[in-house]
Design a protein that fits this description.
By secondary structure, the chain is of the alpha+beta class. It has 2 domains: 2-76, Roll (Ubiquitin-like (UB roll)), CATH 3.10.20.30; 85-172, DNA polymerase, domain 1. The protein has 6 helices and 5 strands. It is globular and about 50 Å long. The chain starts with a strand and ends in a 6-residue tail after the last helix. Bound molecules: FE2/S2 (inorganic) cluster (2 copies). The site of one FE2/S2 (inorganic) cluster has 11 residues, from loops. It comes from Frigidibacter mobilis. InterPro entries: 2Fe-2S-bd (IPR002888), 2Fe-2S-bd_dom_sf (IPR036884), 2Fe-2S_ferredoxin-like_sf (IPR036010), 2Fe-2S_ferredoxin-type (IPR001041), 2Fe2S_fd_BS (IPR006058), Aldehyde_Oxdr_Iron-Sulfur (IPR052914), Beta-grasp_dom_sf (IPR012675).
């Protein structure tokens, strides 16, 4: 059947078996191989993409469920010439070794920072209605769906905290001072 996905701002009209997962549609049909297949069972987070701005495991969702949706993959967040703040921070803090989990980590962290900013509580947040701070515990909890076989966790958390701190600096400086 015909499914239209807007992948990284480009509409893709795909002819798919209705059983095709969103992950396979992205990788095998649209040819965007930045998103990785790890477990294919919703356990590792390697396949994390953003659907209409929210992070999901693409291996657990059928492509037909996303007809008309806006999907952002790692290729849509930045490019080698124009890295996103998180992509740059992962390099800066040495947040990856083999790099297999990294696209999923960065997609997940991109949405997670927005969830934090929007005041969504997590299991470890001290209050349900106050803003949560990007502490190590908050980030570890919120990123717990993304596994790293190389165990680069301390550096992944450092990268995310770096971006959160830079955003805070920018908002404290005010929009006129933003760089
Ligand atoms: S490949 Fe989707 S969660 Fe592991
Ligand atoms: S960097 Fe190798 S799996 Fe995470």
């Amino acid at each position: 059947m015909q499914v239209t996905l807007t992948l990284n701002d480009t509409p893709h009209r795909l002819d798919l078996d209705p059983r095709t997962t969103l992950l396979d549609a992205i990788r095998s049909h649209a040819g965007l191989t930045g998103t990785k297949k790890g477990c294919d069972h919703g356990q590792c987070g390697a396949c994390t993409v953003l659907v209409n701005g929210r992070r999901i495991n693409a291996c657990l969702s059928l492509a037909v469920m996303h007809d008309g949706d806006r999907v952002t993959t790692i290729e849509g967040l930045g490019s080698p010439d124009a890295l996103s703040p998180l992509q740059a921070a992962f390099i800066e803090t040495d947040g990856f070794q083999c790099g297999y989990c990294t696209p999923g980590q960065i997609c997940s962290a991109t949405a997670m920072l927005e969830e934090l900013r929007a005041g969504w509580p997590s299991h470890v947040s001290e209050t349900l209605d106050g803003p949560a701070l990007p502490t190590e515990a908050e980030i570890a909890e919120r990123m717990s769906g993304n596994l790293c076989r190389c165990s680069a966790y301390p550096n992944i958390i450092a990268a995310i905290r770096l971006v959160a701190a830079r955003r805070e600096d920018r908002s404290a400086a005010g929009p006129g001072d933003a760089t």
